[in-house]
Design brief:
The protein has 191 residues and is mainly α. The protein is 69% helix and 0% strand. It is elongated. It starts with a helix and ends in a 6-residue tail after the last helix. The relative contact order is 0.08.
């Protein structure tokens, strides 16, 4: 079993209190039954999350909207699970959605997982979105250092020369300096 799936099922088993409804969603092999959970009224969040996650891992694009909503959830484990499933979904809309979430300044407190997802996807949206998000985090006393650090690390992984000026700015921030040095080392000609 996929480690992320195991973690998710354990967390949701506790949230759901076990029971037959939970067991059906964990064991069903019917993608239509899982997809129905996403649109049926009155379904609890744990059921929608489990159905969307399983569909995402299976590459079923009916899970896309639900997974994007979960990627922007206030609960970090839900965001992490959604990012994991979206990375495997293979939907071409995923990078644009992650970029929109990562750069939404009103939701920056929840941008960590969209930033990490952008790094994993590495599409054309990734570098511009990470640069935008990181620039905003370089303001004095910005409280979102984990988001900034994820941007720095992601830009290093992506190795795009457009990141060099912003990564050099990040060197002046003690919480980011070490990661910025490592990121710059990964970009050809940045030294």
């Amino acid at each position: 079993m996929d480690e992320e799936l195991r973690t998710l099922t354990e967390r949701l088993r506790r949230e759901a209190g076990g029971g037959p409804a939970y067991e059906r969603l964990v064991t069903t092999e019917d993608p239509d039954a899982l997809a129905a959970v996403l649109t049926e009224p009155g379904r609890p969040l744990w059921a929608r999350e489990l159905a969307a996650f399983r569909l995402g891992l299976a590459g079923d694009r009916r899970a896309f909207e639900s997974l994007v909503l979960l990627l922007n959830h206030r609960d970090p484990p839900r965001c992490a699970s959604a990012a994991h499933a979206l990375a495997r979904l293979g939907d071409p809309r995923t990078a644009r959605a992650a970029a929109a979430l990562a750069t939404n300044e009103l939701r920056v407190a929840y941008a960590l997982h969209p930033v990490r997802l952008l790094t994993a996807l590495g599409g054309p949206e990734a570098v511009p979105a990470l640069l935008t998000t990181l620039r905003r985090r370089l303001r004095p006393h910005d409280p979102y250092r984990r988001v900034a650090l994820a941007c720095v690390e992601g830009l290093g992984v992506l190795g795009d020369p457009r990141a060099v000026p912003v990564l050099r700015e990040a060197l002046a921030h003690p919480a980011l300096a070490e990661a910025a040095v490592r990121a710059l080392e990964r970009i050809p000609g940045a030294r």
